[in-house]
Every structure is written in C-alpha cells, then in structure tokens.
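re the bet — no i am not wrong, look at it urself. input seq straight from the record:
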Amino acid sequence: MKPTIRKILSAVAVAAIACSMLSACSDSGKERIKFVTGPQGGSWYPLGGAIKNLVENRLDGVSIQVLPGAGIANVKAVESGQAHIGLANSVSTVDAISGRAPFTEKATHICNVATLYPQFFQVVTLPEAGILDPADLKGKALAGQQKGNTAEAITGHMLQAYGIGFDDLSRVSYGSYTDSVTLMKDGNAQFFTLGTTIPAGAVMDLASARDIRLMPIPDEGLKNMQQFNPGYMRGIIPKGTYPQQTEDVPTVEYATHFIARCELDDQFVYEILDSIYGGMADLASIAKAITGATPEKMGKDIGVPLHPGAARWYKEKGAG
C-alpha cells in the first residue's frame, strides 16, 4: 500500500508549508506541491513532469504542480516561499547562498537534495561572424536567454572576463531557445548562448539549417570567470557532438541539481529522493546525461547545505 502524504508530512509541515504558506491545498483535498522547472522547449520541464509522476505514483494524497522557470528564478521562488521544490543550477545556487549578484541577500531557505547531471555552457556561432574566442564577441549580435536564466548570467561573466559588457554588443535579443534559433537561422544574430545538456536539441535544430561553430573558452577565460563564481568548472564538449564538429571544445561546466525548502518535512524529501533514484530509467529517457547517477554522485558536496531528509537517505545508502 502506498503511504499517504498526510502520514509522511507532519501536521506542522502540512499546516505551515502545504496550506498556510503556499495555499497548497487543492480543491480535491490533496496536498499540492509547487515544483519549478525550466522553460518549455528545454529538458527541465519534461524532466519535472517525469519526477511528478514518480512521486505521485508513490504517494497517495499529493499533487505536484509542475511550473516553468529558470535556474536563477527557481532559486528565488523556493527561497521566497513561492515554490516548495525546484530544479536549479549549482553555480546560481552557490551565488544565492553567498548573496552574490544577481541575488541581493544570502539565501537561507535553500537546501540541496540531489545532484542530477552535468550541464554545459555553449556558445554557438555562425562561421561567417569570425568569432574564434570570447575576445571576438565585441560588436557582435547575441541571441541569449531571458533574465532569470543561469545562461544569461554566465554570458555576462564570460563577457566581463574579457572586458566586454552587453552594451558593447551590436544587438542583444532575449528569448526562448526557439526564438534564438530563429534569429540565428535568419542571420539576425551571430552568436547564441545557452546552458543545457549535450547535444542540445536547439543546437541540433540550428545545425540542420545553418553551418555552425562552437566557440571555445580558453583556460585564461575560465580562470577569470571563476573570479565571479568559483563554482565554474572546466567542461569539454567532445568532438562529434554536433554536425561538422571535428575537435573537442573546452567550455564551462556546472551541475543541474534538485532543491527544496529546508523547512520541508524530512520524510517527504526522503520519499522524493527515493522516488527519483528508483525512477532513473524513466528520467534517463528524457535527460540522457542522468544515466549512471549513483548515490555518491548525487550526494556530492556542491557548496549548498544538504536537506536533512536527503542526508538520511544518503547515509542509508552508504554515501553519507
């Protein structure tokens, strides 16, 4: 028999978190949990839907509402109490914990539940633009992600690392992946930045219509970017990831992870984590990069405090 959410969430948690704080009681009488994910067209939104199904199939009396979002916006939503759980990027969450821009104060309600898979910052250019490294971006037209998206913040750090600002670009367009691909296809943008898994569907779409080139971020650039956020790591996009990509491309890597409000009931978070781990095959069909996740990898210290419910799960698995 599946445990009910009311058996798992304490009376205090149900009252303070599920109903009072977030108006989470649905008309059906189920406890509604707000789950912020990513923009439609990316991998986070369908991944959130798969996690929703895993948890709801495990627990009676819970309804998870999957909402679109973005890396920075999701951290702000969980911190402010507008959401219970979310997907986030490690670099943005570390910024929030430290109170660095774009956050105005230190986040104190964000806890890590699981590191899921690596993500790669990708700078896709049109060959005729003559962009060989970040120094060549000055005066070029950008198709970037909307503010509140981690990739937008990383783009800013990359430009700053080379003494360039958004004002130094000829044009800056913020929109969805689909919007950016359209701008690149039409030649109205010369480079496109995004942060996601590889190969990215949006980049493959663009490559089906235009020749593309991935711009490398050299060691010096990464070192300068780490002054803005020490969580940036060296990542490599292997040759052959995209059409006509004949060489490995060095870039910035970070992690997608699952966050929860620290006040969320320990047993409930334990059950969510156990659901995620038990459903890895389903999740890997959406985000291939999650394949091979282990308790040791999922529980790795990324500079964000671990939720007590998750800590107990990792300890039981011998990874805590």
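see?? Residues 120-254 form a domain with the D-Maltodextrin-Binding Protein; domain 2 fold (CATH 3.40.190.10). told u. also The first helix runs from residue 5 to 8. so pay up
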